[in-house]
Amino acid sequence: IVMGESQAMVAEGYNASAATVESNVDSSQSVTNVSLVNGTSGPEGGSTAPAENGTATDNVPVTVPGAGHVDNAGSTLSPEEERLWSIVKANSSEFNAWTALIEETERISQDNIAKIRKVYDAFLAEFPLCYGYWKKYADHEARVGAMDKVVEVYERAVQGVTYSVDIWLHYCVFAINTYGDPDTIRSLFERAVVYVGTDFLSSPLWDKYIEYEHMQQDWSRLAMIYTRILENPIQNLDRYFSNFKELAETRSLSELRSAEESATVTVASDASETAPSESDGKADEGKSQADGTSEPSKLETAGSTDPEELKKYIGIREALYIKAKEFESKIIGFEMAIRRPYFHVRPLNVAELENWHSYLDFIESDGDFNKVIKLYERCLVACANYPEYWIRYVLSMGSSGSMDLADNALTRATQVFVKRQPEIHLFAARLKEQNGDITGARAAFQLLHSEISPGLLEAVIKHANMEQRLGNVDDAFSVYEQVIAVEKGKENSILLPLLYAQYSRFSYLVLRDAEKARKIIVEALDHVQPSKHFMEALIFFETILPPPRKIEYLDPLVENLIKPNVVTQNTASSTEREELSLIYIEFLGLFGDVESIKKAEDRHCKLFLPHRSRSELKKRSADEFLSSDRTKLAKTYNETAPAQPVSNAYPNAPAQWSGGYAAQPQAWPQPQAAPAQPQQWNPAYGQQQAAYGAYGGYPAGYTAPQAPTPVPQAAAYGAYPPQAYPAAATAPVAAPVQQPAAAPPQAYYNTYY
């Protein structure tokens, strides 16, 4: 690419077939140029540029490739490089290994641009929000004189982090140092301010734009820049208004007004002049000729600075400034609470997460769609690893009718930013089903079953339920049977008893065939070791089946589990055994006879009451004796937090069948806040990655298994028993990607039926 072509790319934007990354917002705390170089905050405030974003510098000299320059990505790797590549290929989310690999490659292969390109392309495909590494990548290209590659990297960068003040600033500085054509540089500045000019922390970019136009001494452009700044509630607004007034007072209005403004003023001036009478005109003409004077030219009139005109000129801008300051007073609290506006793999604290929700609530209530989109994009840099914000963004866009923006955000979430988290894929499946995309919904479930979180009970249940809603009962049963077959092949599968319990219940509710449901349970006993969870589910299952209840079948199973037995290798804890005994007693209270109740209560007293300490019994107050057993045990259950019951697999469960004989309060899902809006997504992303080696989860290069991150299950009875998401691959994991806090427990029957 020759200089003229690269200038066109800068001015108009890069649209070649090179790899690009997803557009997203980066509200990285903007700082002065010096602080951008040093990675520290400037005098105006802001936050330190994180190490995760690299250390970028401006003014990198462009050099011609020397004799020692190597362009061979296939050169021999050092042992350390091989070790680090093996880690990131096995687990592409291992951030520390990536940064160590970059440092090692730069250390031993500084002149091998092909190797450097390979590692940066792979890393930035996985972490496109790290704007500092985009800058470092561009610096490497500049050092070997690859001007077209520098522009290409910057263009990929601004597509990857479109709303980053910092990356646009670096790009503009590069253009100023490289090109002499003011139009090229101005076009780039204009592209930048379209995206980030209203960012509260956009001052460094505006300062650089002002500095450039001041060097050009284009006062009308400079005045227009100040006018645009004063329209927006950004940082340092007082300083900008003060500087604007100083400019207006030191330059004539003819210099400050644009050609359009001057033409408007001239027309208004002509219209305001009253046409003199013919006699007055002749008299005035004779007088002027006698005096030897003539009418001042229009140019002189326009060049004069009338105090009233100047006051009016400043007053218009002052009104914009006052309005912007009023809005700033409403958002300053939210802005000051944002302590980490940049991307980081470590979790955010709860206060900052809540602040983002509150800020979004406020902006959505204000009703400015453009502000909503840009704030969501800023939020989704700092909160990129939290599915809840992506889900909120998608729902916001959908509710506003912007389905293209909703699809844009969902694609970015599921393919890049939270692609390993089951929650986003479950949401995607539900949304696609609601929108009539059944094929897409099935694909989302299959991805969960095969790669993201094989054996996730919630995914199995929701997938089967969807097929049943669609009238595909055989397919629904097949979902359970396929997963059960896989789990049978595993030794001591924790999921298998839960699957059997849920499958039997599902069969009865769908077909109303009690015998088929019982047959599934009987089959389960041949393949699973009875556990507290499984027995709880079995007891509960009997409550929803038609009479007669098979108490004679249940009793020996319960007894074998609650009695300590070395022969049967009973692994249930004493707490679990006592809870199961209480659940069974309550079941018999409703469906058993006097003899069966007596037998169960006597057994319970013999096994568990002697182990209660006297001090524990004395602590029980009179109020506790007046309350029901369920209430007392609910209190105990909540305080001790024992393992969750398997009867969770039963949605429409009566409240009395709670885990540990306890009635757990049902947690209803919180209503969604009013939705919001997204950033421009580059649809060519998936295709273009192949041009850069397709690393980490991308078609060519290497395959990076996506190891799911464990997420705690809901704890309340009627919710799922605790089940960690199974790992898709046994890959080394050093620094897991941040995970959002677990959602409050939700009732199973409130969620899926």
Automatic annotation (TrEMBL):
Bias-annotated ranges (Low complexity): 662-683
Annotated spans, Disordered: 36-58, 264-305, 660-683
Example GO molecular function: pre-mRNA 5'-splice site binding
Extent of Basic and acidic residues compositional bias: 279-288
Major location category of this protein: nucleus
Record key words, sorted: mRNA processing, mRNA splicing, Nucleus, Repeat
Keyword Nucleus: yes
Family matches, as Gene3D superfamilies: Tetratricopeptide repeat domain
Family the UniProt entry places it in: Belongs to the PRP39 family.
Compositional bias (Polar residues): 265-277
A GO CC term assigned to this protein in UniProt: commitment complex
Protein name, per record: Suppressor of forked domain-containing protein
Location of this chain's protein in the cell: Nucleus
Coiled coil spans: none
Pfam families: HAT_PRP39_C (PF23241), HAT_PRP39_N (PF23240)
Biological process, per Gene Ontology: mRNA 5'-splice site recognition
Domain of life: Eukaryota
Organism from which the protein derives: Brassica cretica
